[in-house]
Design goal:
The structure holds three protein chains of three kinds. Chain B is an all-alpha fold. Chain B has two helices and no strands. The longest helix of chain C has 11 residues. Chain C has one domain: Porin (Beta Barrel), CATH 2.40.160. The radius of gyration of chain C is 25 Å and the shape is elongated. By secondary structure, chain C is mostly beta strands. Classes of the chains: A alpha+beta, B mainly alpha, C mainly beta. Chains in contact: A-B, A-C, B-C. At the A-B interface, loops of A face loops of B.
Chain lengths: 287, 69, 414
């Protein structure tokens, strides 16, 4: 799932072991199903059938419906079809894409171009779906559902998407650290998480710097570039990881409007802007 | 009119309950929050009070009879 | 909540698999439980009894319970009890020549009762259904019953609708002290009349439960029970009366309304239980019952106790009950005629104290000690019935019971 994953569980040994196995199996199932690297994955099959109408399963339908809603509520910023831009951006070689190539590529980007009438999908030829923006979050929520079904108290952390079943057995909240966007081995703030989910999106995950500007991997589907004056990182607290993750991603794409948008939603958040000034409504800040 | 008021009060009450997310329901699933936490004690309570009072039932369809009343 | 957030939140929860279903779920573990109860009634005041049997009425009860998950969405459970009763119970109440209310106590025999109920339940993610059946056997009384019930969670699982229907059939076969029919009728008219009589019962329940917040849940329900058959008490008889000393209507319909509240108090680590029931029936009985309980938990923060899952729960409970009298409740005046009822079987009458206007108070204290997968229970109850508790200052009702009850037993989860 692209990052360290951990589970913190309280319960009887046998139940905890069973829970860990169920959680592992569920994460593997989702990773396999929605992997864009495996030709035989369910997602790759959908992409291979581009150009033809196809019926998708109910789980994928739910995720696509959610992505559709995110697309609408973000004025087109949250878009699961931006994956093809990877072919023109090379974060490893640290260079900007060729303008013509980017323009050419952008024609294959845009949620509005595909036909989605749940559960029927027509993906135009040349376009690709990349569920990377929702699957990791969804996997964290699924693991939490397994914990609840097993009656286990715990915390799930799938590469920064964190969700808890409730407070710890002694009634105390879980102390959750929020990574500093520049000194990424340091904690910038502590958040007592007693319920719900925390997701963080940052420009430090995959990026390069050129001429004093930082280019991160969260790309605007309209321009093909990262958001202007995008925050260094955004953490959002919500009922579940799916929601928290989408809100954090949209905030990154909104650039300088991120803070006012999050404030207007009324969700608790913590935001480091590009000059590392902190805004937000939660957390015990250490810096 | 009275029933209208009652219905309105009920509706107001139900809409006043903001949704408690499933992950917030850990407390409600506790044993000591169940409607009858101790099965055998409930059974015997029903049996004893049924045999000593004119009343019975209330929380489920009435159970089987016995010669105690 | 802003509209944008509401739409996103709804859409996220609509993804299949997002909602963990904690409520409607098959029991994860098997459970076995045993309980022993000793029940002892106070002596009937000697001054008010007329020389009949006076032994203290006592009951010993052994109860068993076994619950097993079956497959991935079913459970089976079996519950049984064995009861042995001894001592005297009130046979009839009357006014003597001096206008003093007296009660005649009868029977000193040892009676036994055995019952067994089995249930199968099926669980869906937001619903469950059960089917139940069982019987109760005594020397002079046999009963069978069966029922189905179900519940459904709606409104984001915030609301639970439940309902059930049950049917019962009882056969009465009172002990006859005389082999000769005429002697039976003359000396034990009540038992003679009740011979091979039966009772049918149909009961329907409907309820709704609602989650109010993270710590509070409430419920309300109504039930209707109709009983039809020989509802008189065969042992309330007066030898020489020719007719039974207890003749009740051959049917009774009972309506109940119950409400309940469970509220967890995180600051106290305790749960408050409150239950209220109102009952009204076609015998003109109206009753109300209020029960309050406080489930106080203690989990000592001591190393070996924490490691062995040692926890304590102390539960004080109080219960108040009050009822009005049945329209045919009557204390025969033996100063006027002895026996009072001689031939009239066309009208209804009963001096059963349980049909009088009275109230009852009960206090209960339980201690539950949990150790690993075991729980040991100890419960004591004191119950006192009195006409005055039912705001009835004008009548005396000797024969109303007061009792002590002590239970202890072990629960095991595996």
């Amino acid at each position: 799932m692209g990052g360290p994953c951990d589970l913190h569980l309280y319960g009887e040994t046998a139940v905890v072991e069973e829970t860990v196995n169920l959680a592992k199996a569920e994460v593997c199932r989702l990773e396999t199903k929605y992997s864009r690297y495996r030709v035989d994955s369910y997602l790759s099959q959908l992409n291979l059938q581009a150009g033809q109408p196809q019926k998708v399963d109910s789980e994928t339908s739910g995720l696509l419906d959610f992505a559709d809603q995110c697309y609408r509520q973000s004025q087109g910023l949250f878009d699961l079809t931006t994956g093809v831009l990877r072919s023109v951006w090379s974060f490893r070689d640290r260079r900007l894409p060729d303008t013509d190539a980017l323009q050419e590529c952008l024609r294959r980007v845009g949620w509005h171009r595909l036909q989605w009438h749940s559960p029927y999908l027509v993906l135009p030829t040349g376009m690709e779906l990349d569920l990377g923006g929702v699957v990791k979050e969804f996997a964290a929520d699924r693991v939490l559902a397994i914990l609840c079904q097993q009656g286990v108290t715990g915390l799930v952390n799938l590469a920064g998407d964190i969700r808890v079943t409730g407070p710890q057995p002694d009634g105390k909240a879980w102390p959750v650290g929020i990574r500093h966007p520049r000194q990424t081995d340091q904690v910038a703030a502590w958040l007592p998480l007693a319920a719900g989910a925390l997701a963080t999106s940052g420009d430090y995950e995959r990026f390069f710097e050129l001429d004093g500007r930082r280019y991160c991997h969260i790309l605007n589907p309209k321009t093909g570039y990262p958001g202007e004056q995008a925050p260094a990182s955004v953490s959002v607290l919500a009922d579940n990881c799916l929601l928290a993750g989408a809100l954090a991603t949209i905030a990154m794409l909104l650039g300088k409007d991120a803070e006012s948008w999050l404030a207007s939603l009324g969700v608790p958040f913590l935001l480091f802007d590009e000059s590392l000034t902190v805004y937000g409504t939660f957390g015990e800040r250490l810096m | 009119m009275k029933s209208v008021v009652a219905v309105l009060v009920l509706v107001a009450f139900l809409t006043g309950c903001s949704t408690v997310s499933p992950w917030q329901r850990g407390t409600l699933a506790r044993d000591d929050m169940s409607w009858s936490p101790d099965r055998l004690e409930s059974t015997l309570n029903d049996h004893v009070y049924f045999s000593k009072e004119a009343s019975f039932g209330g929380t489920a369809a009435a159970g089987g009879g016995c010669g105690c009343n | 909540m802003s509209n944008t957030l509401k739409k996103l939140a709804t859409s996220a929860l609509a993804v299949p698999g997002m909602m963990p279903f904690v409520q409607a779920q098959q029991p994860a573990e098997s459970e076995a439980a045993y309980r022993f109860t000793f029940y002892s009634e106070d002596d009937s005041p000697a001054s008010r009894t007329d020389g009949g049997a006076q032994e203290r009425y006592q009951i010993q009860v052994h109860q068993f319970y076994l619950l097993m998950p079956y497959g991935s969405n079913m459970s089976l459970d079996v519950e049984g009890s064995f009861e042995s009763m001894s001592g005297a119970s009130p046979a009839y109440t009357y006014l003597d020549e001096e206008g003093v209310t007296r009660v005649y106590m009868s029977g000193a025999s040892i009676e036994q009762r055995f019952d067994l109920y089995a249930q199968g339940r099926y669980y869906w993610s937001q619903a469950e259904a059960g089917i139940k059946g069982g019987f109760s056997i005594e020397r002079d009384y046999r009963a069978v019953s069966t029922g189905i019930d179900g519940s459904l969670q709606i409104n984001d699982q915030m609301t639970t609708l439940s309902g059930g229907i049950s049917v019962g059939y009882d056969v009465i076969n009172p002990t006859q002290d005389f082999s000769d029919t005429e002697l039976q009728q003359a000396n034990t008219p009540g038992r003679f009349a009740a011979k091979d009589q039966s009772i049918w019962q149909v009961s329907v329940y409907q309820g709704v439960g609602q989650i109010v917040d993270m710590n509070t849940v409430v419920q309300a329900g109504i039930s209707v029970t109709h009983r039809s058959g020989y509802l008189s008490d065969p042992y309330r008889e007066y030898s020489g009366a020719v007719v039974p000393y207890d003749i009740r209507p051959d049917n009774r319909t009972v309506f109940t309304l119950n409400t309940g509240l469970r509220r967890f108090m995180p600051n106290f680590n305790a749960a408050l239980h409150a239950d209220v029931r109102f009952l009204v029936d076609t015998w003109d009985i109206f009753s109300s019952t209020v029960e309050l309980g406080w489930y106080q938990n203690f989990a000592p923060d001591i190393g070996w106790m924490v490691n062995n899952g040692v926890a304590f729960q102390v539960v004080p409970k109080v219960r108040y009950y009050q009822q009005t009298e049945a329209y045919f409740y009557e204390i025969p005046d033996h100063g006027e005629a002895d026996p009072f009822y001689t031939a009239d079987t066309t009208r209804y009458y009963s001096s059963d104290p349980r049909l009088s206007n009275y109230g009852a108070l009960s206090g209960k204290l339980s201690l539950k000690t949990t150790f690993r997968s075991f729980a040991w229970n100890l419960t004591g109850e004191r119950y006192v019935a009195n006409p005055a508790y039912g705001f009835n200052a004008s009548e005396e009702t000797p024969g109303l019971p007061s009792f002590w009850r002590i239970s202890t037993g072990l629960d095991y989860r595996f």
